[in-house]
Amino acid sequence: MIDLCLSVFPWAKFRKTKGAIKMHCLYDHSGALPSFVTITDGKKHDVTVAKEVGFPLSPDSIVSIDRAYIDYKWLNSLNEKRVWFVTRAKSNIDCVVTGQHPVSGKGVLKDQMILLTGSRTKNYYPQELRMIEFYDEETKKHLIFLTNNMKLAASTIATIYKSRWQIELFFKWIKQNLKIKSFLGTSKNAVMTQIWVAMSYYLLLTYIKYQTKYAHSLLTLSRLIRETLFERKNLIDILTLKPERLLAVQDEHIQGALF
Question: How far, in Å, CA of 39 to CA of 23, rounded?
Fold first, then answer.
């Protein structure tokens, strides 16, 4: 969610006195990259976008989603496409236990097979689901996960869901470092342009980091590029320097510089 002042951005009405737009992102965990992004108004529900847009998920991929995406019709469509999903179960889930897996792995309390029994949900998702109760030692919380994957270890399912936090860190990073909390223009086109430029910049940063095997963080890389943007220095040479040695690099005269 990107909050906007309604009086300045009247086209982004979210609530009576609040404006907002939403960025929906499919984040590739293996490459730490946003592989698909779409932007909607703030009122658009997460799972509605997932159903309408159709995130590009290939068979045998695993998608980790929060409870905002629980729609059993949509989850059933993922199951039919052989896409594995891992999510948190809602507290009011209506189900009956049909079997059990052997409980193994640190923090795993229960590992059960269930069928949905709700008047609608049992028709929306008629197949068996796997429900895992897990105790997180770090947060001291009991968590209940739902998945259609029956083969992976229960502790692995919990780890997969925990990795979902990476997308939250991604959103936090781009908000803090890519200037998408304050905008240069107030029109819809200006806001969208600034967001897409920010996303393109992020992808370029990640590509440079990958190609050069840069050992430090994206934030450090971003700062290095920002500080040397108008210097005639080889980017590869700069990236091989340790950040603390960057200040020791002698400035070179720039021909045609304006003062």
Answer: 5
How far is 259 from 240, CA to CA, in rounded Å? 30
Question: How long is the chain?
Answer: 259
d(CA 121, CA 3) in angstroms, rounded, equals 34
The tens digit of pLDDT for each residue in 77-119 reads 999 999 999 999 988 899 999 999 888 888 899 999 999 999 9
Q: Cα torsion for 107, 110, 116, 118, to the nearest 10°? A: -80
Q: Are 177 and 221 in contact (CB under 8 A)?
A: no
Beta-bridged to residue 146, according to DSSP, are 87, 131
The H or E element containing residue 172 is: helix 165-177
Spans of all domains in the chain: 186-248
* 146 vs 87: CA distance, rounded Å: 5
Contact 9, 19 (CB under 8 A): yes
